[in-house]
Every structure is written in structure tokens, then in C-alpha cells.
Amino acid sequence: MTPHWLHAAEGRLPVEGEMPGFDGATGWLNSPPLTAEITRGKVVLVNFWTYTCINWLRQLPYVRAWADKYTDQGLLVVGVHTPEFGFEQDVENVRREARGDRVDYPVALDNDYAIWRAFDNHYWPAIYLADTEGLIRYHHFGEDEYARTEMAIQRLLGDARSDVVTVKPRPIEEPGDYRTLRSPENYTGYARSEQFRSPEGIAAERSQQYTVPDHLGLNDWALDGRWTIGEQATTSDAAGGRIVNRFHARDLNLVMGAAQPVRFQLLLDGKPPAGAHGDDIDADGYGTIGDRRLYQLVRQPGHIADRTAEITFLDPGAETYSFTFG
Fold first, then answer.
1. Contacts 24+ apart (CB under 8 A), 188-191
2. Domain 186-325 fold
3. DSSP 120-169
4. What pLDDT score was predicted for residue 12?
5. Is 284 within 8 Å of 229 (Cβ atoms)?
6. What pLDDT is recorded for position 5?
7. pTM higher than 0.85 for the full model?
8. What is the pLDDT of residue 273?
9. Are the beta carbons of 296 and 279 closer than 8 angstroms?
10. Residue ranges of the chain with pLDDT lower than 50?
11. ∠199-214-180 over CA atoms, to 5°?
């Protein structure tokens, strides 16, 4: 079978079915509700996202650039925000992050997953392209294939130009280093957590004193201090709570937040991160969390090896959700 991207490159985009509408949206940002009458006659790019997703953040510079470049030629970019975590259902949280991420195109809020189900979608991020007749002609799941996706946009717009966009991503939007990546995403809530190694085990939905074992293998994690492990979030119940993760990746990110500002410090193999600090901490490892979002904690220069990240929350109330890497 010829890959769909090759059809795009040759100008032959297969018909994949009719594009569902956006009737299931629970709200809209940057636009009134988009009806079939409004979308008719336009090439429509539908981008499924949720604002804490590191893979979507890496894709975002291209989606922004396509909206900027092709809107006047008849492209309509529509973001569909389908939340992964409960706090991502809050419209003010989505509005704040969309503003910070410069998501200026229309966004359908999909808190009930109605649009997700209508598209039979299973991924963040996902891109679907529909032609002016409302037929889906191309899709792509995950990162990469940016040039091929843009070529499909050009074909549907009847644009013969061969140039593709060049983007200038923010640090959090830069591609991961997949050559060295050996750590998968992991959640701290009990519903989907893996490789939790505190010897006390998970005491779901109740405050528990935890300890860190003497040894952590690659991709193991543990807690120290008093914490409550919930379905989605693991929350520090006292000042000084630690979360420890053994990982192998250039980047370490953590989705977290708090009702009130919480100070923290990250140590890398027992030392301040210095030049390996991420965008949300300083060289001594200090940072503060508040808004529930993805925080970039580590970006290592040079050689990548197994490292141990130890995060100590200096105030109670820190909520942690998931580790991601790059």
C-alpha cells in the first residue's frame, strides 16, 4: 500500500470519509461556533490537542505558521482541545495557556469528547485535512512529517509553490532528542502510574508517609515524605516532600501545579543542574509552580546518560501529574 504522504507528494490525496462537524463543542475560543455553512468552501485543518501535551507543543509552531501563511488562501485551522486531565476542562485554564502559546485560530472546546469520538480519534496530537467539499483527504498522528503535511495543504489549496515554512520554536517547542531517549511518559496518579518503587506501595486517596528505596532502576520513581496519591494527581501534604525519578533523556518535564504558589528545588544526581536547567528553573534548580501546566525542568547539553532527578517541594500543596521526556 502506498503511504498517504506519498499520495500527497504526488498530488493524489485519497478520500478518507466526510469530515464530522463541531456540534459537540462545549465552547469556543477565538471564534463563534463554526457551522457547516462557515466551513464550506474552505480547506480545513483540524488539530486535536490538549495543552499539557509535550508532543503537541512541539507540533504547535508548524500549525501556527500554516495558519499565518495560508489563511488568506482559504485554509481554516481549527484546534480541538480535548482535555487529558481534569484541570484542562476549565475554560479559563485553556484560555490562559492558548494565549501564552499564541494559539490565535479558532478552538473548539471538547470537554465531553464528542468531537474526538465523531472523528474516531485516538491521539494527541492529531491532524486531519478536509477539502472544500468537506471530505477528509489526509491525516497524521503525532509529531514530524511537517513538510509532507504542508505539501498536502498546498495540494488542497491548489498552491503550486514548493517552499515550506521555517519555524523558530520556543525552548519547550523544540524537537526531542530521540536518538538518546530511553524514558517513556509516566503518570504519578494511581490510575496509570508505572514503576513506582516506594516500599510502602500506593495508598490510594489517603495521606501516607513514603520513603525512597536505596536503589532506583531506569524509569523507576518514588516519593519521600507525606503525600496523597489520587487517580490523576499525587499531592504533597507537607513541606519538604520529595519526588525522585531515574531517567535517560535530554529533557525532563513534569506536569504539575498548585492552588497557591509552591517553591521547589531540583537536584540532578544530588547537585544543582547548572547548565542543564530547563526553562522553568534556574541554574541552582529553584523554581515556583502555580498554574497547572507542563514545566520544563531539565535540558541537558552534551552527553546523555542515566540521571536521577530529585525534586523537593518547599511548601505543601504541590500537585504532580505526569513526567514527559525528550
1. 188/221, 188/229, 188/233, 188/234, 188/243, 188/320, 188/321, 188/322, 188/323, 189/229, 189/230, 189/231, 189/232, 189/233, 189/234, 189/321, 190/229, 190/230, 190/231, 191/231, 191/232
2. Jelly Rolls (2.60.120)
3. T---SSEEEEE-TTSBEEEEEESS--HHHHHHHHHHHHT-----------
4. 82
5. no
6. 42
7. yes
8. 98
9. yes
10. 1-10
11. 100
Domain spanning 4-173 has what CATH number? Answer: 3.40.30.10
Spell out the domain ranges in the chain.
4-173, 186-325
d(CA 313, CA 104): 35
Q: Identify the residue whose cell numbers are 499564541.
A: 102
Residue identified by cell 491532524 is: 127
DSSP H or E run through 118: helix 114-118
- pLDDT at residue 160, as a whole number: 66
301 is written with which cell numbers? 547539553
Report the C-alpha gap between 190 and 310 in whole angstroms.
20
d(CA 175, CA 169): 9
Biggest CA-to-CA distance, the chain: 64
